[in-house]
Amino acid sequence: MHKFKRHALISALSAVTAATLLTTGCSAGSQSTAADKAAPTAAAEPAEPAEAGAAEEQLAVVSAATDGPTPTAVADADADTAGQVKARKSALKVASYDKESGRAVISAPSGTSGSGSDPSSAPSETTPAAPDAETPDADKTPDADETPASGPTSDPERTPEPGGAEPEAAVAVGDVIASAPAPGAPDGLLAEVTKIVGTAADGDGMTVETEPAELTSVLGESTADGTVPVDPSTMEVDPLVEGVKVSWAKTGDLTFGPEGAKLPLGSLRLDVGAAVETAEGAPASAAASVEGFVQLAPEVSFSYSGSGSGTGSSPGGAFLGLSGDWASQWSLKGRAAGSTDGRPIRIPFAELHADPVIQVGPVPIVVNLDLVCYFQVDADGRVTVDVEQDLQGDFKVGGNFTWSKGWTGVSESDMTGEPLKTAVTAVGEVKAAMGAEATVGLYGTVGVTADLAPYLRTEAAASAEGSADGTGSASGSWALYGGVDLTGTLNVQLSIFGTPLFQKRIPLGALHEEWLLTKGGAATS
């Protein structure tokens, strides 16, 4: 009898609930609470972006946060993205990686389990009951032999993690992992899981075998376009000659160059002075040297368009490059030696390296940036100079991909200079540059190499005439020019974008500009 009454009560409650749902769902004039109105809207929201942006999803390109570890992104092998970005943020981490074997240990936060699906793409198993459902009276306690229906707190182990993320399982074969720099992967990691080896030796994480992946596997048919400044305080500087001084400035943390020169935010400055080989037979007073500084504020440019190729596997467009502001002030003194084997003498004075992480939607993309700053002198060993130039401007180099044209180089520079000192003795020509070799890549692969060489060029000429009566005349002229040479290449590793592989390096296209700084002349009889 007791069981009969209990079943009758449950049936009655079910009937009342169904009637209530029918009334609130079908009656246009019925009164509803704010929670009632929000429920159907929240259920419909995921479908709207999928329909409006099925072809492309615009992703923000920003600097990765520095106040904590950068989240890993994982693209599920069986994910149906409907044209959206394939990857999602994940609590999984690359605990270690061996480049030679491709083996990695993937770890998850301790105590997690369950599905690794994106919590925003599917209803949570811990979703509370509909707000219209009636709550049983407090005195209607279930019998001891009954199991309560599953609810938001029925299973503590299924409680969502902070931020709404579900507890996460380890990766599966076919998943693609995008990670910021990790142990064994200082350049970051973009790799596809090809085999599950088993539990790691220390029992913490899963050992997997991987192979390099492409950006299309995590960005899908989304689009992204942005330029991110490189934090100068994160750049490792290795001086190659004595006397190199480094100063930098970033937001909220200013430093100053020599003699109290305040730097613009985001700038890195290198001051240097070095001796240069003197021409053979030159007097001691003609000892040659270079001295000055170079100041730059580098930025990484990245763009990606996953649609428009018509192939479904290659992007419609992409760009990777380096740009920024440049300023230098330097001088050349003395009678420099001639060229070596027909090539200018190059003196590297500092190597710089950084691995900035840019966040493209949920995907952390690791950019590898290397710079070698140098002096370069090309002289005939006859002319003695004391010249100085102040140069300012900007530059942009990189590789641009379109499906119709393939990869093409980009090399741009807009610089101007003014002379600070000019003294030329004797006849001859000298060209000296203070420049930088730059290499930009992704996840440890070289993509773009460029050589930016702002320079000074001095030329001096003389002529003389005479006659039998001992009379004659002599005249001389000189000119000082400023200029910039920009050269470089695109490398096959740019195929990391998922573009067709090209078989050789592609020149960026040489840029050469020169302008007159000052000139002069004299004549005698």
Automatic annotation (TrEMBL):
Q: Does the keyword Amino-acid biosynthesis apply?
A: no
* Transmembrane feature ranges: none
Source taxon at top rank: Bacteria
Q: Which UniProt keywords apply?
A: Signal
User: Which residue windows does the record flag with biased composition (Low complexity)?
Assistant: 34-55, 107-133
Name the segments for region: Disordered.
28-55, 64-83, 98-166
Signal peptide (UniProt feature, chain positions): 1-28
Q: What is this protein called?
A: Lipoprotein
